């Protein structure tokens, strides 16, 4: 209908394609990095959230948690 705008539709289509490719890559990366898909560690070999990890040689059960130490050597997984 409007010949002066004919080039804009092609640019928008190319931008949409690039956005779709980026979204697909992001979704694929999220699937790889998703901690929900990982197996959880055995409870006997890890410290649960909000439990003391002071002096423990085992990691926190939650894969995203870390042993966090505060005042007077109080350490717990969070």
UniProtKB/TrEMBL annotation:
Q: Which residues form the signal peptide?
A: none
Q: Which UniProt keywords apply?
A: Disulfide bond, Knottin, Secreted, Signal
Q: Which GO molecular function annotation, any one, does this entry have? A: signaling receptor binding
Q: Which residues form the Agouti domain?
A: 46-78
- Keyword rRNA-binding present in the record's keywords: the answer is no
Q: Which GO terms describe its cellular component?
A: extracellular region
Paired cysteines (S-S) = 46-61, 53-67
GO:BP terms for this protein?
hormone-mediated signaling pathway
Q: Does the keyword DNA-binding apply?
A: no
Question: Which Pfam family, an example, fits this chain?
Answer: Agouti
Give compartment(s): Secreted
Name of the protein described by the UniProt record: Agouti related protein
User: Origin organism of this chain?
Assistant: Rattus norvegicus
The organism's taxonomy opens as: Eukaryota, Metazoa, Chordata, Craniata, Vertebrata
């Amino acid at each position: 209908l409007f010949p002066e705008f004919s080039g804009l539709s092609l640019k928008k289509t190319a931008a949409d394609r690039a956005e779709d490719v980026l979204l697909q890559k992001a979704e694929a990366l999220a699937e790889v990095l998703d901690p929900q898909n990982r197996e959880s560690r055995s409870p006997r070999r890890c410290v649960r959230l909000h439990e003391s990890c002071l002096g423990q040689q085992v990691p926190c059960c939650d894969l995203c948690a870390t042993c966090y130490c505060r005042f007077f050597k109080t350490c717990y997984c969070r």
